[in-house]
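quick one, 251 residues, struct below
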Amino acid sequence: MPRHILILGGTGEARRLAARLAGEKNLHPIVSFAGRTENPAQMPVPVRVGGFGGIEGLRAYLAAERIAAVIDATHPYAAQMSRHAAAACASLGVPLLALRRQPWTPVAGDRWREVDGVAGALAALGETPRRVFLALGRNEVRAFEAAPRHAYLVRSVDPVEPPLAVPHADYVVARGPFTVEGDLDLLRDHRIEIIVAKNSGGPATYGKMEAARALGLEVILLRRPDVPDVPAVETVEEAAHWLDRTNLSDS
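---
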């Protein structure tokens, strides 16, 4: 019988891993989405959407579905899901691997400032009105209503509904990857003075970082949260090889 593999998704890595495993006759991969994105990217394998109900809910799901292994390919900022996965898998003895992107690191010309969370970003923007590019999820941008003195450009995968309760906000609904040329045009057209973003890592959204460097703009980066210390790899191929090497129970 094929072994059931749960991929905790929401990233390009999860999509590529699902495609890599879709043709494996001895595996039955399932991708789980948290449900925060209205229209997630299409997957070549079965998909489930929604939370598990904490650690106990995830434990129950793993047992009921006879999951042989879990690959945590969530976004680097989805730390709570990663913690729940580590706890649930440890309690059941289910093998767990994290597929993690490395963070971006600054190079010559970058003007980065790391802060703790959205509250830190709000404080870093200061009191002087500025033109701000918010490259964050639609749930996080809502906090910037607390600083209505700034003019915002919001880019998100799904529309921000209702719009922010601030005097000046423009919206771009788009899914990466984004190019440096496109992001240069975006920042210039909106006369952006500062960027607020997550250090997501990977090439898909790095264009804005290169564009900021070229324009001499400051970037406020939300510091990555701590994640569990579990076996981890950086590439889809490494994750597939881990599955080959791991002794998976029958599902």
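The chain is about 30% helix and 25% strand.
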